[in-house]
Amino acid sequence: MNQILFTSNKFKNRKKKNIRRFKFILLLSLLLIVFSLSYYVYNYHIYSKKEDMSLTLLNSFNIQRLYLNENDYALIPLNNNQDFFVIGSIQIPSIKIDYPILSDTNDELLKIAPCRFYGPYPNKEGNLCIAGHNYDDSRFFSNLHKLELGDKINIYDATSSLTTYHVYKKYETNKSDTSCTSQDTNGKKEITLVTCNNFNNNRLIVKAKE
Fold it and tell me: Is there a contact between 191 and 207 (Cβ–Cβ < 8 Å)?
């Protein structure tokens, strides 16, 4: 009889421990979910504000560029006192891209719009290399992988001059490969679009020429 009672108490104690353990794990899981959702909402809000800034810059650029001389660029200050300027805009109808192109590249500017990181200014001889973020949604260069050979890429410069380029090459490479920035274009105009593949940490390269 005592053995039965002892076994029964042991079972009850184990059951209580399991219930406490379950409650602890459940509470921890809920906290992690709340934290993850808060982090996602916060980042989405921040990136949405950056994209709103991109749209504002694009609208201003569309109005002002009709009156700009080729080398007359309006400097725009960031919060960290760094200046940049809009040197043109990029439109890709097939994947619904319409963004300004910023003059320089750094982590802060890449959150606002695609950036020139190598080569000449828009629609000059040489290879203009443009980097853009991949957020795995519809923003910036996230849908660059959907481009097909022959697709059109429209580039406007600061004087409102349009040059249309056609995709002739698309490939992936590792981060250390900088061959895509080559300026050997035989005097022709080319553009190179670069973004990340977030699944394998490679770079997606899209090349287009006039």
Answer: yes
Q: Which two tokens stand for residue 144?
A: 């660059």
pLDDT of 184: 94
SS3 for 145-165, per residue? HHCCCCCEEEEECCCCCEEEE
Residue 44 falls inside a structural domain = no
- Provide the number of structural domains found in the chain: 1
Parent domain of 67: 50-209
Beta strands (DSSP E) in 17-174 are 76-77, 83-84, 86-92, 97-102, 115-118, 126-131, 152-156, 162-173
Interstrand relation of 189-197 and 126-131 (parallel, antiparallel or unpaired): parallel
What band does 182 get if pLDDT is binned at 50, 70 and 90? very high
pTM of the model: 0.68
| Inside any domain, residue 10 | no
CB 117 within 8 A of CB 128: no
CATH number at residue 122: 2.40.260.10
Question: Where does the pLDDT of residue 61 fall: very low under 50, low under 70, confident under 90, or very high at 90 and above?
Answer: low
